[in-house]
Amino acid sequence: MKIGNREFQTKGHTYVMGILNVTPDSFSDGGKWNDRDRALKHVEEMIAEGMDIVDIGGESTRQGYTLLSDEEEIARVVPMIEAVKANFDIPISLDTYKSCVAEAGIRAGADLINDIWGLKYDNRMAGVIAKSGLPCCLMHNKDNTEYNNFIVDMLAETQECVNIAKRAGIADDKIILDPGVGFGKTYEMNLMTMDNLELFRKLGYPVLLGTSRKSMIGLALDLPVDQRVEGTLATSVIGVMKGCAFVRVHDIKENKRRHPDDRSYSGTLGGTDG
């Protein structure tokens, strides 16, 4: 799969997507990186630590978050995409579920659209992505936790996202799936999702796992958001073992680090291009 100017081998490798929230209210790092110079310094640090792709988001998705207008979100993300593009050679993912924001981000240089509603929120989004030719990440999400059979229904709802993409003309090699840990699921459902990650791969697309510092980890370990690195690492290892192609994380160094003599691990997490 090509993202930006980089080829990603999505079978047998797990790449690290670094999170850059240019928001004042994200659950974990709100307000830390909404200053341009600090944000660029952080991107530089994440690249040095081994980040393979950066995910830029302008709207928090924490519980009770403030919904932004398209104009507000564009004003946050477009200057940052342009600045990262001008200063670094790193693929850029834009975290948005709004087609107008995606269009602006694509013009600014985004290389991938990461839609947390899996093309189901904005009926223009699939067409915008298809027209651009960019790859996309489609996350399972819903506004409730009602299921007849959780695993079966979750997979079927994720397949609906794929169907929307294909009807719009998005090619198979442009699709990544995200099981949506922390979205439209209870704590127990999140654990079941982790236990069944391999089933997402059977849908036929690379899988991105996003668990970094999330409440599932906090509830399991009874730890606040700033003390969930070890829990995140445990979930990243599960993701690697179950064949996820990407892990989306805040803490690059810790997730990327591996023992130099552990060939089975070093050859998997953060594999080389080609």
Task: Provide key terms for this protein.
single chain; TIM Barrel; 8-stranded parallel sheet; two-stranded antiparallel sheet; 11 helices; 41% helix; globular
Shape: globular
Content-based structural category = alpha/beta
End-to-end distance, in Å? 10 Å
- Helical segment count: 11
Q: Strand share of the residues?
A: 5-15%
CATH topology: TIM Barrel
Q: What are the low-pLDDT stretches, counting only 5+ consecutive residues below 50? A: 25-30, 259-268
What's the count of strands? 10
Average of per-residue pLDDT values:
89
Helix content: 40-55%
Largest sheet: 8 strands, parallel
Domain module tally = 1
> Given this structure, which CATH class is correct?
Alpha Beta
Helix-strand blueprint:
Elements: E1 2-3, E2 6-7, E3 15-21, H1 36-48, E4 53-57, H2 70-87, E5 92-95, H3 99-108, E6 112-115, H4 125-132, E7 136-139, H5 150-168, E8 175-178, H6 187-195, H7 197-201, E9 208-209, H8 215-221, H9 229-241, E10 246-249, H10 252-256, H11 263-266
Parallel strand pairs: 3-4, 3-10, 4-5, 5-6, 6-7, 7-8, 9-10
Antiparallel strand pairs: 1-2
Helix pairs in contact: 1-2, 2-3, 3-4
Task: Please give a structural write-up.
The protein has 274 residues and is an alpha/beta fold. The protein has one domain: Dihydropteroate synthase-like (TIM Barrel, Alpha-Beta Barrel), CATH 3.20.20. The chain is built from eleven helices and ten strands. The strands form two sheets. It has an eight-stranded parallel β-sheet with strand order 8-7-6-5-4-3-10-9. Strands 1-2 form a two-stranded antiparallel sheet. α2 (70-87) packs parallel to α3. 46% of the residues are buried.
